[in-house]
Design a protein that fits this description.
Layout: E1 2-4, E2 9-11, H1 16-20, E3 43-46, H2 50-61, E4 64-69, E5 72-76, E6 84-87, E7 104-108, H3 112-116, E8 122-125, E9 129-135, E10 141-147, H4 152-159, H5 162-166, H6 175-183, H7 188-191, H8 207-210
Parallel strand pairs: 3-6, 7-10
Antiparallel strand pairs: 1-2, 4-5, 5-6, 8-9, 9-10
Length: 211
Amino acid sequence: MAIASVATIYQARQTSDELAKMPSKFEPVKGEAVLPPAKLAHLVLRTTRETEMTKFYQDFLGARITHQAAFGAFLSYDDEHHRIAIMNIPGTGPKVSGSSGLEHVAFTYEDLPQMLSNLTHERASHGPTVSMYYRDIDGNKIETQVDVFKTSDEANAYMESDAFRINPLGVDFDPEEMIRKLEDGASIDSLLPRPESGPREMDTIPSAFMA
């Protein structure tokens, strides 16, 4: 268990043997409801290139270093004390593409023009969001997104719709074309809805994204 404040992080003392014995399956106490967290707090990335990775996320997210340590850095782009930590942990090897684990992390932007200020080769209109995809220098995948719907109720309703059931993977789009439409006077609201294209299979996803 860990207790954290903005100023200091207090970590419960746990030996490596104790950590190794931590159960991978969580079973709540019978008859008691599990209390959900208030929010998702931060992401920690282990790397052998902490200097380059720190610079990448400073540039990519407009993040600032809130604490520099010998092993890496803590970064934030909002009022949280840190959203990302970059850590050079002894024994870290190169990222293994296609292995089990975290697929990608997503960051939400306020509106479409803000998100389109960064371009990429991989992009999709999923329905609830319009998204673009990147990789950091270690190969971790990053999604930037803008919400299509104004309320969570509308987004949840769409995810329960036949359109999303038929195609939950999304529809590819050209961000440069979207920028041209905005420059020509198209409204943001007219560009957000996903065009319907029928079912989509995993083998139609660009191979660069799946690797």
